[in-house]
Structures are given as structure tokens and as C-alpha cells.
Design a protein that fits this description.
Blueprint: E1 2-11, E2 14-24, E3 29-33, H1 40-48, E4 55-60, E5 66-69, H2 81-85, H3 104-114, H4 131-145, E6 149-153, H5 161-172, E7 177-181, H6 185-191, E8 194-199, E9 202-207, H7 210-245, H8 252-267, E10 293-304, E11 307-318, E12 322-326, H9 333-341, E13 348-353, E14 359-362, H10 376-381, H11 392-400, H12 418-429, E15 436-440, H13 448-459, E16 464-468, H14 472-478, E17 481-486, E18 489-493, H15 497-504, H16 533-537, H17 548-579, H18 588-626
Parallel strand pairs: 3-7, 3-8, 5-6, 6-7, 12-16, 12-17, 14-15, 15-16
Antiparallel strand pairs: 1-2, 1-4, 8-9, 10-11, 10-13, 17-18
Length: 627
């Protein structure tokens, strides 16, 4: 379908790549990876015909069409979300046009719903939405059109986890080919049958998904290193003969023959394995030691208009904890992080930082903490204080470890890529290192080597870390406590992510990040929520004791509530299993019914669990009082 032969591209004296050969068939699912700046997006531009290669040929099979999703969307006019998704095709017949595809609108609405749009949103003007949501509408446009080849440049950057999981599942059944630039290893593992690595100006092909690529790359490097060593040993052996006997008349012809052998070996030289490419390399300066209690929320209330997010919320984090926040989208995870960071004013209750605590906040929207018209260096120097006495040389040294070198420091923030903005925000955190680090989706826009560098740096961080992420590898590497956020309540799991999966009975490690289920345990975390009304109404010490009959009824109520929670969770598991079955999606009506039932049951589980916990607390108080 698509063929590239001996393609090269340079900008001035800088060669991005050369000798690129590639064939993409209609059934291929290829991931294109490489460090930021390697030329991945440029290669896409050449394929799309937006730029011309310096040398080589790019050919499309006759009749093949493609759809392209860039990293950033173009400005929109007056069209609605639905009009973008349907490519402005007519949805109703007119006097001039009776040739209408009546499946177009329902197909577009289904895909828009899967990508997170509510039913009432699709008729609204696109310009009333953020850039991320406009990108989703354009993604829907491609999926509705079903071109022979999808070219996607970082498609997951603008998706929340629920939409990402739906999109990932949809692509597994997509009838065409796929060429995708992504730094999301779970996404690449789920979809790709081949990996293309753009490294050192050369395109390398690997069979399999991202994990297969890692294994094969190591094996190739070891093989190349062994072959290079053997060849160099042979050259050295031949050269030793030439040096020893080249001047002797009786051995001159043999020495000359050895020289020719050396020349042939050098012409066919096996290249020495490349050292790892320049990548982000940093560590967090160890912050000042804080008190044991780092941050505490008491009876916090937070709402956005009529939507109440938290009521009477209590939470405490202690020194050295590493907590990941999980739960459904819209449950309030980012809001909680902003409250802890002091970014948003709370409407009720108190937020108290502990002794000697300094909070640092890494925003999900990188531009929230950056000025578009400032330079990279200016964004660093504005952090200079009398205490840190930051010099330009020190700022440049920090920026250098994040790959901002030489004239890069004079780039305006507005022209930086998403990955560069992420790296700049990380660099800023190092100037005044906090001992309470709050990070909202820190891996977004970062390439995989940069994510690994961040993991290594955070492993050595001695302060307190609270973060949100949809990168399961990142979570498994760092989290020691999981806090499930749902329905205004916080449920702690005092273990790592695998412990959370076991206790919550989740069947999918990634889907569990946004699940609304609960393990039904009584909430014992210091900050896990408010004291229940039932517990408050139980007899206080010194009051009238309950009769044996009253205690028996309370125990029966606990048993009934426990059975109700168990039955609901069993049904939740059945629906989840059905939604993981590809056959379910063949029946669109069944898919929507199951989704609706899952949403309803999730809410019912939350309510039933709260009642069960309240009944247990009340029974516990009553039994202790009964003696």
C-alpha cells in the first residue's frame, strides 16, 4: 500500500535520516518510536506529501487512501462536533442531493460517545471546546471515514484513560492498516505487530510489539558487539603480521596479501554498536526533611457550580509516602491534587501543611505553569531567590540535563513541543526542590527513555510523592499506596498496584485505574472520609444498652447488606467480562446496554458499600458497649 525507497531528509547541515526503506501493507500495525527530535513527525510529513524528501521515492498504491491525526489541531470555524466527525457530509436529503449515507450519523455518534462526548455535546460548536476535545472530534472523523491507512501522531495525548481504552479496543478491530507514533508502551503492546525505531538517522524494523522490540534490540546489539569484536581482532592479527614481516623480502608478497585482506575487511567493516543516544538524565536534589505529617485536609468541601465533588473530606499524608490516585474520570482526582497543592481555594474546611513542608505541583496542562512568550532560560531564572542564589550557569547546567543545550535555552515556550514543555517543568522543580511532590499525569508527551529517567530519579526522591498516571509501568515502578477516589470518598489500599488489583478483583491492570468498584473494606485510613451517620448514631459509652434482639437485627442487617454488595460486584464482574469480549461489539445495542448497566451498578455498589460500612461501625460500637 505504501512504499518508501532510499528516502533521506536534512535541514541545513543536520541530517535527520537517510537510506529509509519501508513497505506498509494494508494489514500492518506498526509503531514508530524514537527519541524526541529524531524526525518521526518529519517522516510523517514526507509520507503525507507536506514536505519533499531530499532523495528517494515515496509511492502509494493506486486507490489507497489515508487519514492523518497530527499532534495539534487546526483552528475550527462554526461547525459542530458532529459536523467535524462526519466531515461535513449531508445527513439529511435535499432537493439537490438524495444520495445520503444513513449509517453515517449513528456511526459518528457511537464513536463520539466512545471518545467521551456526551449526547448533548455533539450539536455544540467545536470552537466552544478545548483543543484536546477538538482533537477527539478529528479522531472520530478518521474512524468514521475508515481510510485504508491511519497515520496517528501521539493520538493518546488528548485522551483520558476511559476514552483511551475504548479507542485501543476499537483499533484492534479496525479493518485497515495503522502507522502510529506513540510513547505509550501499553498502547503499543496492545496493538502493534511491528516496531519501527528511528535512531541515529536510520530506520530499524523489529517484529512484534514494544516488549518484543526491547528484547530483540538487546539481542541485536549483543550480536553486533560480538561480530565487531571478532572483526577487530582479525584486523589486529593481520596488521601484526604486516608490521612484523612487511620489510622482509622473502615475506613481502604474503605481507602485501595480508594488507589487501585488511583493506577488504575495513571496506566491509561491521559498525561498532552505538552508545545510548543523548537522553534526559537527572536526579532530584534531596529536599529538606519535613515533619511526620506532611499535609492534612479536614472537613473539606469542594464543588463546581451545582456539581459537588467533595463534602466533609478528610485526608492525611505522611513523610515518605508514595501514593497514586486512581478512580473513574470526573471522580475528583485532579481536583484533590490541586487542593493538596493549594492551587484551588477550598470552599469549606481546612488544608494544613506540616512542619517544614514545601509543595511542588506538576500540572497536567503543562502551560498552566509556563508563559508562552518567555524563553526557556527566563522560565528558569524567574525562580531565583535570595536562598537559592541561582546563576545563569547553574540554570544552564540543569537545563542541559533535560536536553536544552546551547541556543535551545533561548527558545520561546510557545514553540516548544509537548515533550519539551514537560522537560522544562521538570527542570523547574529542581531549582527549589519540594519535599511534597504532586504530579498530574507526569508522563504525558515524554518519550519512553525520558519516562524511565523520571522513574529512576523519583526512586531516589526522599520526600512525599502523590501522583496521578495512566501509565501502568510508571505506577508499578513507584506507588507504594493506592488511593481509590470515587463518589467523593477515598478508599486506601495499603500496598502497591498489584496489591490493589488483587484486593479490588480487577481483571485488567489498565482499566482498573478508572474503575468505580470498591473492595468493600471498612475505611481505616486516617483521611479516607467522614465518620458515617450510622456510626455517629450508635449508642455512646454510658448510654442505654441495646437488647439481644436489637443486636441480632443489626447483625442480620449487616449480613443482608454484605450479600447485596457481593451480588452487585458479581454482576459487575460479569459485565466487565462481557465488555472485554470482542463479540459484544458486534451488537451495538448490547454494548450500549451493558455500558449503561455497568455505570448504574457502579453507583449502586458505592451506595451499598457505604451503608454496609456504616452498619458495621454501628454494630461494632453497640457490641463493645454491650460488653
Amino acid at each position: 500500500m505504501l512504499t518508501l525507497s532510499d528516502v533521506s531528509k536534512s535541514y541545513g547541515t543536520r541530517e535527520l535520516f537517510s537510506g529509509v526503506d519501508l513497505f506498509v501493507a494494508r494489514t500492518d500495525r506498526l509503531g514508530l518510536i524514537g527519541p524526541n527530535g529524531a524526525g518521526k513527525s518529519t517522516l510523517f510529513s514526507l509520507i503525507l506529501g507536506e514536505e519533499r524528501p531530499d532523495t528517494g521515492i515515496i509511492e502509494w498504491e493506486r486507490g489507497a487512501d489515508f487519514g492523518y491525526l497530527p499532534q495539534e489541531s487546526a483552528p475550527v470555524g462554526e461547525e459542530t462536533i458532529l459536523q467535524i466527525a462526519t466531515s461535513n457530509q449531508p445527513l439529511e436529503p435535499t432537493e439537490d442531493n438524495w444520495d445520503i449515507d444513513y449509517s453515517l450519523e449513528p456511526r459518528a455518534r457511537t464513536i463520539l460517545a466512545g471518545l467521551g462526548f456526551k449526547e448533548g455535546d455533539v450539536e455544540k460548536p467545536a470552537k466552544s471546546f478545548s483543543g484536546g476535545w477538538i482533537m477527539r472530534a478529528h479522531l472520530a472523523r478518521l474512524l468514521v471515514a475508515e481510510p485504508a491507512l491511519l497515520l496517528l501522531d501521539e493520538p493518546t495525548n488528548h485522551l483520558d484513560l476511559e476514552a483511551l481504552l475504548w479507542f485501543q479496543d476499537y483499533l484492534t478491530r479496525y479493518p485497515g492498516g495503522l502507522l502510529v507514533i506513540s510513547h505509550d508502551r501499553a498502547f503499543l503492546n496492545a496493538l502493534c505487530t511491528g516496531m519501527l525505531e528511528l535512531r541515529g538517522g536510520t530506520l530499524h524494523y523489529y517484529h512484534g510489539n514494544y516488549d518484543d522490540f526491547l528484547r530483540e534490540r538487546v539481542a541485536r546489539k549483543e550480536q553486533q558487539a560480538a561480530a565487531f569484536k571478532n572483526q577487530q581482532r582479525e584486523i589486529a592479527h593481520l596488521q601484526k603480521f604486516v608490521d612484523r614481516f612487511g620489510a622482509k623480502a622473502s615475506m613481502a608478497s604474503r605481507a602485501k596479501s595480508k594488507e589487501k585482506q585488511i583493506e577488504r575487511l575495513k571496506e566491509e567493516a561491521i559498525p561498532e554498536p552505538e552508545e545510548e543516544l543523548k537522553r534526559v538524565n537527572f536526579r532530584f536534589p534531596q529536599p529538606a526533611r519535613s515533619g511526620l505529617k506532611v499535609v492534612e485536609l479536614k472537613n473539606v468541601r469542594q464543588a463546581y457550580g451545582d456539581k459537588v465533588v467533595y463534602t466533609d473530606l478528610n485526608f492525611t499524608a505522611e513523610r515518605g509516602q508514595r501514593i497514586v490516585l486512581v478512580g473513574p474520570n470526573g471522580a475528583g482526582k485532579s481536583t484533590l491534587l490541586k487542593i493538596l497543592a493549594g492551587i484551588v481555594p477550598i470552599q469549606g474546611g481546612t488544608r494544613e501543611l506540616g512542619v517544614n513542608v514545601t509543595a511542588g505541583y506538576f500540572a497536567q496542562q503543562r502551560t498552566d505553569t509556563l508563559r508562552e512568550n518567555a524563553t526557556v532560560l527566563e522560565m528558569m531564572m524567574e525562580l531565583r531567590t535570595a536562598e537559592n542564589d541561582l546563576t545563569e550557569q547553574q540554570a544552564r547546567a540543569i537545563l542541559g540535563s533535560f536536553l536544552f543545550r546551547k541556543d535551545d535555552v533561548f527558545k520561546k515556550v510557545g514553540v516548544l513541543s509537548g515533550g519539551e514543555k514537560s522537560r522544562l517543568n521538570l527542570a523547574r522543580l529542581l531549582v527549589n526542590p519540594p519535599n511534597l511532590l504532586l504530579m498530574d499525569e507526569p508522563t504525558t508527551h515524554l518519550d519512553i527513555p525520558s519516562i524511565d529517567a523520571m522513574v529512576n530519579a523519583l526512586k531516589g526522591f526522599t520526600g512525599t510523592l502523590i501522583f496521578i498516571s495512566h501509565d501502568v509501568h510508571f505506577i508499578r515502578s513507584l506507588a507504594e499506596t493506592v488511593l481509590h477516589v470515587h463518589g467523593g470518598r477515598l478508599t486506601p489500599y495499603a500496598g502497591n498496584y498489584d496489591y490493589y488489583l488483587e484486593k479490588s478483583k480487577a481483571t485488567n491492570a489498565r482499566a482498573a485505574l478508572t474503575a468505580g468498584f470498591t473492595d468493600g473494606r471498612p475505611d481505616t485510613h486516617k483521611g479516607a472520609g467522614k465518620k458515617s451517620a450510622a456510626a455517629s448514631s450508635a449508642p455512646a459509652p454510658g448510654g442505654a444498652k441495646l437488647t439481644a434482639n436489637q443486636l441480632r437485627k443489626m447483625r442480620e442487617e449487616v449480613g443482608q447488606l454484605e450479600k447485596k454488595v457481593a451480588d452487585l460486584e458479581a454482576r459487575q464482574g460479569e459485565i466487565t467480562a462481557a465488555l472485554e469480549d470482542p463479540a459484544t461489539y458486534a451488537d451495538k445495542g448490547r454494548f450500549h446496554r451493558l455500558n449503561l448497566e455497568l455505570s448504574t451498578i457502579t453507583e449502586q455498589i458505592s451506595e451499598a458499600t457505604a451503608k454496609w460500612e456504616a452498619a458495621i461501625e454501628a454494630l461494632d460500637v453497640a457490641e463493645r458497649h454491650a460488653g
